[in-house]
Design brief:
single chain; 353 residues; alpha/beta; Spore Coat Polysaccharide Biosynthesis Protein SpsA, Chain A; 2 domains; 7-stranded mixed sheet; 57% helix; elongated
Length: 353
């Protein structure tokens, strides 16, 4: 526990935060860091009480910057001030995480300090509809986007390995979507994810939660839709070039190869960094990616020719139909084989960038 810090981002918290921090003081954490995310003078008594607790450090934002920004401020402080840390346990300030659960997640992490440990709620009993519904949607979309079957994708109680925490500092997300970015990054940087069951605690009406269902859900799901948006942009570029070249030459193969070559340059750069967060060396990733492209072009050519010749469907319509069918297959191959590190490989290769 001496190589683990506790971090709590706080925006307009209640006195329950003081109770949680008090319970953690004698638990052996290297430090307990609380980030005041621009709560304002009305909440000064809460932070004065926190500052009076032994081992609690208060960091402040002048204005509210968002949960992700507060987490990054706290992560950076902990990593700089405690260079021997194995990781950081984060918890919410709204009383939803019992101190015993925070300690259990920390202890589980201490046994496997290269694993991202999530405190997973069961979502049973009297749970607010927006929380139950939001997690159910995100849970299912995460299965497709990151290939992970997780019970609680939105939990704020998590133990983050040092290597993953360092990588997350460069992620631009500043709101609730930051925590979803972390799950996607863990997948593609090769960090195993383990879920530790915790109790589900909600106050009546959930008054201390600052999650805005419409705004924050849209930001979260935009993270999940990035691959689709980049794929649509790639498809638009590819199809436009294919149409122009096919009209000019009348040769499907030539038009397909030339259009795909240009689209691949755009797609590779975009999905490598913006979707899969890969920092693997090009000499490792690029050959696998190009092999997929070659196989995809060959299969697409055969299917387009088959559909347009034997079914009498126009070439452009055939191309769109065929590549729509190949979309999910291509995504899953890129997700699990092209850009993802093998689980457990993150620690040994992290310093290479």
């Amino acid at each position: 526990m001496g190589r683990i810090a506790a971090l709590i981002p706080a925006y307009r918290p209640g006195m329950a935060l003081v109770e949680v921090a008090s319970a953690l003081v004698d638990s052996g954490f290297a430090a307990i860091v609380v980030v005041d995310d621009g709560s304002g003078p009305d909440y000064a008594p809460v932070f004065r009480a926190l500052a009076g607790l032994r081992g609690v450090r208060i960091l402040r934002h002048a204005v509210n910057l968002g949960k992700g920004a507060a987490l990054k401020t706290g992560l950076n402080h902990a990593l700089v001030e405690f260079p021997e840390l194995a990781g950081i346990v984060t918890a919410d300030a709204d009383g939803q995480h019992h101190p015993a659960d925070i300690l259990r997640v920390a202890q589980r992490f201490a046994a496997s300090p290269e694993v991202l440990v999530l405190g997973a709620r069961a979502f049973a009993g009297d749970v607010p509809l927006r929380s139950r519904f939001g997690n159910a949607i995100t849970q299912n979309v995460m299965r497709v986007v990151a290939g992970q079957r997780l019970v609680d994708t939105q939990t704020g109680l998590r133990a983050i390995p040092r290597g993953l925490a360092e990588r997350m500092l460069a992620v631009p997300a500043s709101g609730y979507e930051f925590e979803l970015e972390m799950l996607i990054a863990a997948k593609h940087l090769g960090f195993d994810v383990f879920e530790e069951p915790i109790r589900t605690i909600y106050e009546a009406g959930n008054p201390t939660s600052h999650f805005e269902p419409l705004r924050d859900s849209m930001r979260i799901y935009f993270v999940l839709l990035r691959f689709g948006l980049i794929s649509l942009a790639t498809a638009a570029l590819d199809n436009l070039l294919f149409y122009v070249l096919f009209r000019a030459t009348g040769v499907v193969g030539t038009a397909l190869l030339c259009a795909r070559a240009v689209a691949v340059i755009f797609n590779y750069a975009a999905v490598r960094r913006a979707v899969f967060l890969s920092r693997e060396q090009h000499k490792i990733v690029l050959p696998r990616y190009l092999l997929l492209v070659v196989a995809n072009v060959g299969l697409a050519y055969a299917l387009i020719t088959l559909v347009s010749t034997y079914l009498g469907v126009g070439v452009m319509v055939s191309k769109v139909a065929v590549e729509s069918l190949l979309f999910i297959v291509n995504f899953m191959i890129q997700r699990d084989f092209i850009f993802a590190r093998r689980p457990g490989a993150a620690a040994g290769r992290d310093s290479k960038g």
